[in-house]
Input
Amino acid sequence: MVSPSQKPSVCINMAASGRHVGHYIHRNGRLLSGNLEQLFGHRSFGWTPSLGQQAAEAHKAESTETIVIPRKKTWSKEAVLEALASTVSRDPTAYKYQFQDDPYLSPRTSTEFKLYSLSQESGRSAAKYFVNTNPKFFTKDFAEPHIPCLMPETVSLRLEEVSEEALKERISLRKVSAAVDMYDQLLQAGTAVSMETTHELLDLICIYCDRDPVQEGAPETEDTEGGEELKKRRVRIRQTLDSLKSTWKENNNAERIFNMLPERDLRCYSALIRGMVKHGAYAKAFSMYTDLLNEKLTADVHIFNALISVAPSVREKYTERWDLIEELLTQMNQHKVQPNLLTFNSVLKALRRCGSLAKIKSLQILNEMKALRIAPSLASFDHLLAIFYKAATYGQNTSNILQEIVSELNGSSFTCQDPGDVLFFTNAMKICRENKDLELAYKVQSLVEVGDNWMLLGDPFQQSIYYGRFFSLLCLMEHIDAIMKWYKQLIPSLYYPNTQGLKDLLQALDTESRLDLLPQIWKDIRSLGHDNKLDLVEEVLTLMAREKHSPEVQKSFAACALDIKGVFNGDRGRPSLEWSNSSLTCITSLLLRDNMTEQAWEIMQLFKSNNRVPAEGLLNDFLSACHSSGSPQRAVDLVQLSAAFCLPATAELAKRTLAEFNLTDEQRAVLSELESAAETSD
Output
């Protein structure tokens, strides 16, 4: 390592500029001012040439540039398919394309989506395993254009003799143990192995941490022993063993072969350093880097990127972490190693673990990227948001910096340049939701809709998180017409709402006084498979039964209540829900308001069979409904039901029935007996 005293004066200038940036932030009260172009106007490490040299090179390039006019336009074989695809748009009412072969298997919930996705992938892996292990049955290729991934791969060894060609074959087939054995046999036979093959062997060992990778599509051993607890324990043991296997071990084959080499070049050091970083041996990687410097070798950009990314893991204090990062950057400058996008993204990612230093230093890194004309990727901005944004302190500052980023990226189309690019949109929408910034959320969504930016939302599960946060913010801040518009666009083609998402929608309907849409939402709840969530079902019933509506709305509510009754009775072959006082009361009230006395009486009888006690207000409402419909017998049955529960309201119900209904002598005798018994009990 180079000592801090050996750092060039440019680092001092960088520190001074950092104080200037900090003063600028404090004076203006904002994290970013104007736009990112104005902010990125400073350079510090000095990788770039002077402005005069840049102008001379540009003039020279213009003078030597020639214009080549093609004689004809060359089209790719997929051009027609791409043109046809551009004429159609997404159908918001359809499920995802991979599930449209069999409508019965179309997932309706996020859990089913995960299950079916994994099942499809498992089927593909099994088919690929069969194709690769039986290539003799798949010798014909009729595909046009040719699709190599659908053809059998060579997975079995063909060369058995001890030779360098056999070693290359094992390396190409990723047979780590077999390649190491063949290498040892070559050395024992006195056969020299070329440096190029040695490089490939070291790369293979370091990538897979000296163990054979699991063959894609290989069938798993069937678990013949029963017991869920035993299976879970085996899964935990297997995961623990996998984590131990992937840890860099002392004096493994990579280190052994490296130490046996008579000459070690940069490629050998690069393989070991990057392998140690990949598999958790951070301190050992820095020690290996020191050996590289002692050998008078110059590290390449990939080595620096790997070391910078794990610098916070080998230092405890924030200042020490930044000093180590700055030292590595200074050494890159001294050795004339030009940084790339991944270099700066590694620095920004490491700064996320540098505490309060990160805010000023991250802006300086962005200045350096601007000076080098390296455009930040979405991962760069995601690291910037993580540095300025703290989950415990939501504030206007974070919204400001996201506002500046989105304004700068407005209308731009992106390609994935860093694995972290797929995290930007999800985290940006999280900030919008926490700050309740609907306008900014719309801007983020507009950026997603540009070109193929939607592909940078990540895997389907991450996409569901993004749209879930967006929809939650809509339900909280937007009016109901806009919410329903997005609801129809997102569900189920892009977003499988969870229980909380549907509760947010119900809350929005309640806030906007649009409870008339509840029957429609209930149909979607059933189709999405959430009708087995008792709290969600009771929320729908409570909203419908809370107050009276127009006769048309009450009729639709009653039909919805009967459908919900089927859920509690376990229709469609599903497990039934447990009746509660709330659900029984709400369904009975909804049926009574639509004058469906007989259906309501069926629900009243469920109180007794489920050991639930009806409320006094419900009994009075039912008695009034019996009087309106002219059902004296149901009124008598109601009093008998109240007496069976020994309710205090039994005597009053009997008096009302005797006074308001035309009863037979037998009915009057029954009611008089119930009234006297209730009064005696009281």
